[in-house]
Write a structure and sequence with these properties.
Two copies of one chain form a homodimer. Chain A is 37% helix and 21% strand. With 287 residues, the first copy, chain A, is α/β, with parallel strands linked by helices. Chain A folds into two domains: 4-176, 3-Layer(aba) Sandwich (Rossmann fold), CATH 3.40.50.620; 189-279, Pantoate-beta-alanine ligase, C-terminal domain (Pantoate--beta-alanine Ligase, Chain: A,domain 2). In chain A, helix 3 links the parallel strand 3 and strand 4. In chain A, helix 8 (196-217) packs antiparallel against helix 9. The two termini of chain A are 35 Å apart. Chains A and B meet through strand 5, helix 6 and helix 7 of A and strand 5, helix 6 and helix 7 of B.
């Protein structure tokens, strides 16, 4: 059955309230569209967790893009996205306009403080404020639900978890594993921009994470040595590196009490395309 | 019947969900305790608007007090507050501890941008961030409800309205008129600090607002002339004035398109006590 497509906020609220009144559990997968297998795995994760009314939002949120970023060229594939949602048994697709999400006097935001500062926070100032604000709005429209976020955007996922805990939002957050191609490349809507040659060089990211993962599982806990393994694998191949490091998951910095709580995390450019990836060594599969 | 006293967040959420499941409309009056007739009028307003499960929160929120403000000496009168809630037919009193509201890693906030900058924003930096954050938390715990705020704290009330609209919170905001003594003094938990002589001088605030109100209703629309009426009434009597002005309600500054949309608004000190008051000339009763 085709998912119901909803454009208006109040209609979304009404559908979710009705679903709950029928005893259904609302599951939510927020996306910017250009859906790939990674997104579909989040929808399946929502169902596996018990959601029987799955809502997918498709909204390229201008508030989370910087002035020099790829908002205008971000891929839009709405018809294909709808078909994918239908195949996954999604109940409702919410695809609002910018105008309906941000009125002319809009001037509020939700922000998480420390966790937003390192890594992406250094390179995309304001990005996470845009993310937490739109996600808070969507949570407020949907009402109590479970929401699935991909570990591919690990810093984002950890920030959302913190926002929900700090602000007492009635949402259960589920983090789903990163989907990868057979050769290790993490799935991303931006992969379609890569030339074959850039894609080949881009594999250095998962290779670097894999090297650190292997060292971790052989007992290495030195953050500097693990970081070097990640960085040295990527440096010869990337056009530039925003960060390529091993950090503590709790702080997303080199500071932390728990020696086992380590994450390899990378953002690097190949041609004009910025790729991100990460691995929680103690928890995730080998990249 | 005595209201149920709840200390734990999840218990509050459960009671509100149960009330809604029974078809009740949850009404919410957030307070810092030290309840006076002004607060009680908000509870009655909630009932008048249809709420049949009224929740009053009593929480002196440390996040909205500055370092040099009166957090420690803010009045606490819990037993009397409970009795007042019982008399008003309040269903539930939520009185959490600081620790249960702010965990050790708390690092999130909700903020409204422009409306928080003038007036109180100049004199109490961070205050409104503390207010919007705690109110967002409480709204998230209560779920869909109507919430009543007093016009006495006009800037706060307008900021909350904006937050709810911008962030799509499922809350209907009702603004209730300022309760005054027969001689015009606006009710406030802080009035108990005033000596008889300070209280007498404090009446200059409502006198100033009244002078501007009368001029407005005789056709005066010049913001500078109206401001002078407010300020000149107070200046000889206050120990200091943070602000005493007439501003446009939409911006809370002297800038605005709508000549009728004017508010007299004051914060001034009498002895150690800081009083605030205001009047929306086209809408409120004569102060």
């Amino acid at each position: 059955m085709k998912p119901t497509v909803v454009r208006e906020k109040e209609e979304l609220r009404r559908f979710c309230n009705e679903a709950r009144a029928q005893g259904k559990l609302v599951g939510f997968v927020p996306t910017m569209g250009a859906l790939h297998e990674g997104h579909l795995s989040l929808m399946r994760e929502a169902k596996r967790a018990g959601a029987d009314f799955v809502v997918v939002s498709i909204f390229v949120n201008p508030m989370q893009f910087g002035a020099n970023e790829d908002l205008d060229r971000y891929p839009r594939t709405f018809e294909a996205d709808l078909e994918a949602c239908e195949r996954e048994g999604v109940s409702l697709v919410f695809a609002p306009t910018n105008e309906s999400m941000y009125g002319p006097n809009f001037e509020s935001h939700v922000e998480v403080e420390s966790l937003t500062l390192p890594l992406e926070g250094v390179h995309r100032p304001g990005h996470f404020r845009g993310v937490t604000t739109i996600v808070a709005k969507l949570f407020n429209l949907l009402g109590p639900c479970l929401a699935v976020f991909g570990k591919k955007d690990l810093q984002q996922a950890l920030i959302i978890e913190r926002m929900v805990a700090d602000l007492d939002m009635p949402v259960e957050i589920i983090l789903a594993p990163t989907a990868r191609e057979a050769d290790g490349l993490a799935l991303s809507s931006r992969n379609r921009y890569l030339s074959a040659e850039e894609r080949e060089r881009g594999l250095s990211i998962s290779r670097g994470l894999r090297a650190a993962y292997d060292a971790f599982h052989q007992g290495e806990r030195d953050v500097a040595r693990l970081s070097a393994l990640v960085r040295e694998a990527i440096e010869p191949h990337a056009d530039s590196i925003d960060y390529a490091a091993v950090v503590h998951k709790a702080s997303l910095t080199a500071d932390g009490d728990n020696a086992d709580d380590l994450v390899g995390i990378v953002a690097a450019r190949f041609g004009n395309t910025r790729l991100i990836d990460n691995c929680i060594f103690a928890e995730d599969r080998r990249p």
